[in-house]
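Quick log. Single chain, no ligands specified.
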Amino acid sequence: MEGDNNNLYRECLRNHAASLGSYATDGCGEFTQDDTTSDGGLHCAACGCHRNFHRRVTYGATSYTFRGGDHHMMEDSPPHSGREDYNMNMSNYNNSNKKRYRTKFTGEQKEKMMGFAEKLGWKLQRKDNAEEDEVERFCKGIGLSRKVFKVWMHNHKNSSSTPSPSPGNASSLTQQ
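-> predicted structure:
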């Protein structure tokens, strides 16, 4: 098999209690090739599991592997497994300690946005020249971007002071 010269197969990770809804491994510490089977030695002589159940460790030399959607090229690197790559990638992802900036609106801005949103019917149409100029002027006038106003409008459309026109149901019409 291609690339087997640089791979070692360590402990068996097969869950023998999966059908019971639990987790139990057999304790096999390292894959030992079983030459007596007809499948080309892909089962472990110690535990009988297929080689794929054993944790693979890749050593030095140049090898190309595919793990979790990323292509990695390793040259003369220390041994590592796919699980370690995953943990390293997740730690890099979680280290972005940047907190999202929350926009603070003044009372005056809120009043103006509420009035303008009611005038627009709580909907921003796609970029239309006449309406776009009006929205852009309004946003520039109160010191906000169009995107911030759009998000604010989306978040507050259900808490508007004027109820939206609803057709009503038959039972409400007959009880008057």
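The longest strand covers residues 7-12.
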